[in-house]
Amino acid sequence: MTQTAVCFDLDDTLYDYHEYARAGLAAAADLVHRRSGKRVHGDLLSAYFDPNVDAGTFDVLLESYDLPSLTVDDLVDAFHDGAHAPLDPYPETERVLDALGTEHALGLITDGRGGQSKLDRLGIRDHFDSVLVTHDHGRSKHERGVFEEFLADLDVHPTRATYVGDDPRVDFRAPNELGMTTVRLRRGRYVDLEPEDDAAAPDYEIATLDGLLSAIPTMHVERGVVE
């Protein structure tokens, strides 16, 4: 158990989730058009990206239109399953993964539905030595066991592993408890969201993934990890 590992979240950490959402919303709107003849593409986009809309986007849509042949579940399924166009990683993602992969084992843990498909659409699957899409197993990153499974899979001690995510609600509490190093990417949908308490706060913050290349060696020195 001598190697080090860096594990990533996926949505908003390695790519802009809004790109996935736009494709999914278009697929859901296409379903509405096929079933009802109504064109809702513009309204669906507006509701999804309106920060003042607290209710679920599809609930708002069904309340606004008479769509008896559709349910929220139908639209959610279309959102996640109906779009297959390629997705673009952040500009620096592949460069950073290439660089880190020469020194560390790389893993990915995501709660996001359709994680396997997203990896294929992003074209970055081959960078990872371990991938866990918790949704496929009825689990979530709230569970310590998810991170313990990652550590066991790569045979890495918690103090030699780093987890990189963007959402303080789910990304840092469990790995913090295990003694992993946690890094928050301040980017994406949750850029302004603060942790609810110290236990959910990351050890470090970065503005772009490029920051990992200089930060990880420093983190390891501070935490007593000898390369």
UniProtKB/TrEMBL annotation:
<dbReference type="GO" id="GO:0046872">
    <property type="term" value="F:metal ion binding"/>
</dbReference>
<dbReference type="InterPro" id="IPR051400">
    <property type="entry name" value="HAD-like_hydrolase"/>
</dbReference>
<keyword id="KW-0479">Metal-binding</keyword>
<keyword id="KW-0378">Hydrolase</keyword>
<dbReference type="Pfam" id="PF13419">
    <property type="entry name" value="HAD_2"/>
</dbReference>
<dbReference type="InterPro" id="IPR041492">
    <property type="entry name" value="HAD_2"/>
</dbReference>
<dbReference type="InterPro" id="IPR036412">
    <property type="entry name" value="HAD-like_sf"/>
</dbReference>
<dbReference type="InterPro" id="IPR006439">
    <property type="entry name" value="HAD-SF_hydro_IA"/>
</dbReference>
<dbReference type="GO" id="GO:0044281">
    <property type="term" value="P:small molecule metabolic process"/>
</dbReference>
<protein>
    <submittedName>
        <fullName>HAD family hydrolase</fullName>
        <ecNumber>3.1.3.-</ecNumber>
    </submittedName>
</protein>
<keyword id="KW-0460">Magnesium</keyword>
<dbReference type="GO" id="GO:0016787">
    <property type="term" value="F:hydrolase activity"/>
</dbReference>
<comment type="similarity">
    <text>Belongs to the HAD-like hydrolase superfamily.</text>
</comment>
<dbReference type="InterPro" id="IPR023214">
    <property type="entry name" value="HAD_sf"/>
</dbReference>
